[in-house]
TrEMBL record:
Pfam families: Aldo_ket_red (PF00248). This is NADP-dependent oxidoreductase domain-containing protein. InterPro entries: AKR, NAD(P)_OxRdtase_dom_sf, NADP_OxRdtase_dom. It comes from Gossypium tomentosum. Residues 7-174 form the NADP-dependent oxidoreductase domain. GO terms for molecular function: oxidoreductase activity.
Length: 221
């Protein structure tokens, strides 16, 4: 993202501080209520889009973890230290994570429990829909016991549940999943039997069929 702080950056203390200060300036606010790390600094997303070297985390609902694809990353302690300083300065009130795994959540909690200067995470923003329920296993248990709130995103599974990818005229070229055709996960997931069935239900709904779609639920009409 070349429009953010002159290009690719890692989640080190310097860039976290710059990001917080920049957000406050652009928003014209004196504090941010909830500040979340969008992607773990050990994810393939960072490795592909950023110049910093980071380690592998499954992205967009992937379930397979491959240790061979790991890379070094900015220590979590450094990230928490920078975020803690921002909290102490009154710039942000609470912190959270996004696109995280049970391992990542528990590591952030572990370091915060052992250092009073580190803030405890209170939220995690992960993909959650009828087609992506990876949160319901390990992540759900972590968040329940540690009182961490889920902010689910992509309830329509990148538009799959809207039926637009099954429509005869197809989805726009700039539709979200059409932008991810080069990602192996996209190829496996979008044309899986569950997605095709779901698309048909959505299409029947828009054509006056017996099923209707609302949010991330499919209900008999």
């Amino acid at each position: 993202m070349s429009w953010i702080r002159d290009g690719p950056k890692c989640l080190d203390a310097k860039n976290i501080t710059e990001a917080v200060d920049g957000s406050l300036k652009r928003l014209q606010m004196d504090h941010i209520d909830l500040y979340q790390i969008h992607w773990p600094d050990r994810s393939r997303h960072f490795k592909v889009l950023h110049s910093c070297v980071s380690s592998y985390v499954p992205m967009f609902g992937e379930t397979e973890y491959d240790p061979v694809r790991q890379f070094s990353s900015v220590p979590i302690e450094e990230q928490l230290d920078a975020l803690g300083r921002a909290v102490d300065a009154g710039k942000i009130r609470y912190i959270g994570l996004s696109n995280e795994t049970p391992y990542g959540v528990m590591k952030f909690l572990h370091f915060a429990e052992n250092n009073v200067c580190y803030p405890k995470i209170i939220s995690v923003q992960n993909s959650y829909s009828l087609l992506c329920r990876t949160f319901d296993s390990g992540m759900a248990e972590c968040c329940h016991h540690e009182r961490i709130y889920l902010l689910g995103y992509s309830p329509l599974a990148m538009g799959i549940l809207s039926g637009k990818y099954f429509a005869s005229d197809g989805a726009p070229s700039d539709a979200r999943l059409n932008l991810f055709k080069g990602v192996p996960w996209y190829c496996r997931k979008i044309w899986s039997s569950s997605c095709i069935t779901c698309n048909r239900l959505c299409f029947e709904s828009s054509s006056g069929g017996k099923y209707c779609v609302w949010g991330d639920q499919i209900m008999a009409a």
